[in-house]
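Supplementary material to the annual report.
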Amino acid sequence: MQVINLDGTEDTPKVILDKANGIFEVSGRSLPEDAADFYEPILKWLEDYAAAADASTKFMFKLEYFNTASSKLILDILSKLEDISGTTVIWYYHEDDEDMQEAGEEFSELVDVPFEFKTY
Amino acid sequence: MKYIYDLHKTMIAQNLILVYEGEFTQEITKSVLAMAERNMDSFGEQSTVKRKVFNIMVESLQNICKHSDSFQQEIYGKNNAIFMIGKSDDAYLITSGNPILLDRISDLEAKLKFINTLDKNGLKMHYKDIIKNSTGLSSKGGAGLGFVDMARKSENPLVFDFEPINNDIAFFSLKVVISRSQEGGGE
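Predicted assembly:
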């Protein structure tokens, strides 16, 4: 599978989706003007990956900030992960960032995917 | 030239640390955010407060980008609106104002009034309800969560007002208060 490797910018997150190396990561800031457009290739990639997924997938979110439009797309990503067996979401949050911790907890309540919480 | 001094005095009297009036775009949003972040960093604002201010600014600025009604350009210019940040000893005030069509007021007012009736847990439920049940983003790219998110992050009621401009439009003003004494925060 092709690798998605996007550098983070001031309004879009760093994204690495690399099946060969088992790296699945969205990190940084996500406040694009058009969130649907930004996340479209990522959702498409996950659909393709679902057809030939590894036995275990650790999907890492390490977000510093995301806007509400992105939150809807993050839920879309998590919904795709629901269909990929053996998936665990690793939700990182800064140790003093209660809002990001709570956001992760809420996402975990909305989808049927195991979450692990880690601080940085 | 006196208006320059008057504006300067008004800004000081109102504790305004940043005022932007004009066209709103994503590029301008990023610039305003960067200025506010540098400003808060310059006096070592605690990170919990900084994140909340940043968060509410993003939603407020992107609301204007997406929803400010642009018309009568000879009077109001192109998608013109105003955005301000005030800072007092105990709070930040994020305020914005933009023209909207009169027929949008009742929906907007009902939405804001409903949000203001909710407590912390009610807001959380409302947020989850909207995100779970929406099928996608609106044609303007919004998730319908901006005001709820602002209310959650600020932990204060949203203060709003509609000032009539003419038979078609009104000026929508919004003020969001963020307390500077957050529990458990800080660097």
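The mean pLDDT of chain A is 96.
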